[in-house]
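Worked Example 4.2. Consider the chain below.
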Amino acid sequence: MRDFVLPDPSRDLGTPESRSTTMVTLNIDGFDVTVPEGTSLFRAAALAGIPIPKLCATDSLEAFGSCRLCLVEIEGRAGTPASCTTPVAEGLRVHTQTSQLKDLRRGVMELYISDHPLDCLTCAANGDCELQDMAGVVGLREQRYEPAANHFLARDTSGMANPLWQPKDESNPYFTYDPAKCIACSRCVRACEEVQGTFALTMEGRGFDSRIKAGGPADSFLTSDCVSCGACVQACPTATLQENKVIEIGTPDRSVLTTCAYCGVGCQFTAEMRGDELVRMVPAKQGKANRGHSCVKGRFAWGYAGHRDRITSPMIRESIDEPWREVSWDEALSFAAGRLNAIRETYGRNALGVITSSRCTNEETYLVQKLARAVFGTNNTDTCARVCHSPTGYGLGQTFGTSAGTQDFDSVEQSDVMLVIGANPSAAHPVFASRMKKRLRQGAKLIVIDPRRTETVEGAHYKAAHHLALTPGTNVAVVSAMAHVIVTEGLYDEAFIRSRCDWDEFQDYADFIREPRHAPEAVELITGVPAAEIRAAARLYATGGNAAIYYGLGVTEHSQGSTTVIAIANLAMMTGNIGRPGVGVNPLRGQNNVQGSCDMGSFPHELPGYRHVKNPEVRAIFEAAWGVPIDPEPGLRIPNMFDAALDGSFRGLYCQGEDILQSDPDTTHVVAALRAMDCVIVQDLFLNETALYAHVFLPGASFLEKDGTFTNAERRINPVRRVMAPKAGYADWEVTQLLANAMGAGWDYKHPSEIMDEIARLTPSFAGVSYELLDKLGSVQWPCNETAPEGTPLMHIDGFMRGRGRFIRTDYVATDERTGPRYPLLLTTGRILSQYNVGAQTRRTENGAWHSEDVLEIHPHDAEVRGIRKGDWVHLVSRSGETTLRADVTDRVSPGVVYTTFHHPETQANVITTDYSDWATNCPEFKVTAVQISPSNGPTDWQRDYASHAEKSRRILRVS
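Applying the procedure from the previous section yields the following structure tokens:
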């Protein structure tokens, strides 16, 4: 029998893997090969180490059989079938290298070459071209066809224009389409359909005139529906679709596997380098979150790492009204440590605090919270999860016993029903959205609960079965109404509840939810959702098979965010949709390491691993390891820090990798708090908005410049590996260690692996995690310990982390933020595909081609009565503040609702939002703000004053 070749993760096996458990044995070129039923002959040969030429086949796409290079002979069968489209069968005898096959392949290749420019030496794909490779494989040594009609010469030999030639499409800022090099293999078209699910590309023309086309007849790649995910570029076997950086720099000569630093999907990439210069980021096939796919941000928008705005020298100033002064690292750290020590001596240890970064690594976040607790002597530590997913931690912790999602992303492939609430994966988590849409095109059903008709509601070849376009702020009422239907109609899973949950608690909850006030008809006026729609959605979720819930910030960023998370957990438990593939409760995390920042003890009441600081046994573990006492009292949350700064009791802040001035609500309140502090230290890549009110700026390192780990939304701990040297000289963890030592700590970490080893020693859910394990497995999902040495893809399989699942009553309490005659509209906020969070990274890339400013979506009716047209400047005002931005008149929002993003500091959308917050966690109510809009001529006085201060505050006295 032929020995199997262990597949290199990056090796292309031609066709997708079969999941059959039935094995088939056949003979290929004299060797017996055993593979799963349904495997293609091509893949079977590849697994046995027998190469077959190909051009149209790739294992990320379904077999197509158009290139005619992978022909084989099968004994007893006529003809020469394509091996990519021919499945294995028991006892087949297959030949891949007969003289007839060699002649056929050379003939086919000769036809390809006859309409292809032979400019290999100057082609951007030279050395990385499958057409070039296959010409060598089949032994093509001459081209016998005389060039006649062709698509690659702009002019014929007489100088006349060639009507078949088409110019390059260079409209996309990241890649170029050269039709002259297209071999019409359809790989790009199929990638756009099967992998991304956008269906932006098509094959136009027939036969000799076949070429790919983006969008309609007048479209370019930029104006078409193309989302620039890069799947087509990845699939192209020639230089037809080529990254502009490859054209500019050249073919990469080495690579490093690392993890994307954008959203919480956690895509793995191969960073391909030429010398010390990054050429391109290629999505890794072995990435278990992204499975070889990417989005425009991860694939292309990494140029910010080398942007001219990067600050690479430490800076200090005595007052926020002075210019910055570049200094050495020693002087900056001495200045910062001196100010922090002075504050601690004068006002006490609780006058200091830290904000950890959800963009930094686990190891870096761990050190920052350790700095607060072991050096400052306070539990005043918080993170950006306070303003996004802190209700997830509370709600899932109360019901399931752990503060994280239940599934891996592969689970969606087995879902029959998906309930997406308060999330728009198509814009915020696009790689996961592509996997979700693929399952929807296969027949799964979708329920969306969202005030807007988002991109997720309807797409190419799928449409949500139910879109519950609720009034912002009524999530609890809608989810409770669904639960009412399930309980009153007996659709709950009694066996699951009795075996896995507390039956008495369920009985109490059932009595509560049966009350008529929770019926869909009773809440229809409150929610704006027809009762029949709620009932139909509830029945589909309860009876449609494997049902999975995916939710985002549209759930958590409310005054009842924690209550909605609990209601969602109740829904999953009562229907038994927990503990197996295809089901679960899955928070879609916004930033690359927001899950990890929570895991690492960034909250003021929890030490790493979600263990409360009041627990003496837990404190003893860390006190023994760190050699210092730990305060048993929880510290200040971010909003409490701001309030304490204004009353004079909080004086010093170390803020690593977060722009709280742009991301937190009620901007004028944040500005006042920062102004009141004696020492604000900002550590970041750029002089961000928060740095306008800082006294010390410590340059940060991008994800390309450090080693460490990120933890994504599915609890997956992914390796981050250094691609290039830190531009400022230090990785972020080294800067934190230097600051701690300047304050007398005596830390001596030599590498982030040592920090992870400490985390593993002190944190039960990370006990088995090490860099060696990550190098071996690629990634691992916590809990990872003696019980689960290779991690835990699915949670709560046999029981909940807390023992039995807990049902909790979920009373709907209307928000205090109300509309009225003065503020008759409701503003809700969100993200867009091409931009990320506060835009500090993406605004410094070419992504501005798609979204160069924040705009306000307004329904045509609301626009008409106010005399507003698309593109007009509008004045947006709330009880908290005012701003101006341009209007986008659209029916994506309902009458009475307006929507905007918060990616651009010129708009400062959060000057509008209020200080109302979640009752349990203080997560701000970003999604519900009463506003009024009116026509405007330009920026408000506040915007002008802010811009003037920003310009003044960004002055730098540089060292010559």
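The mean pLDDT is 93. The chain has 29 helices and 37 strands. Compare this with Example 4.1 before moving on.
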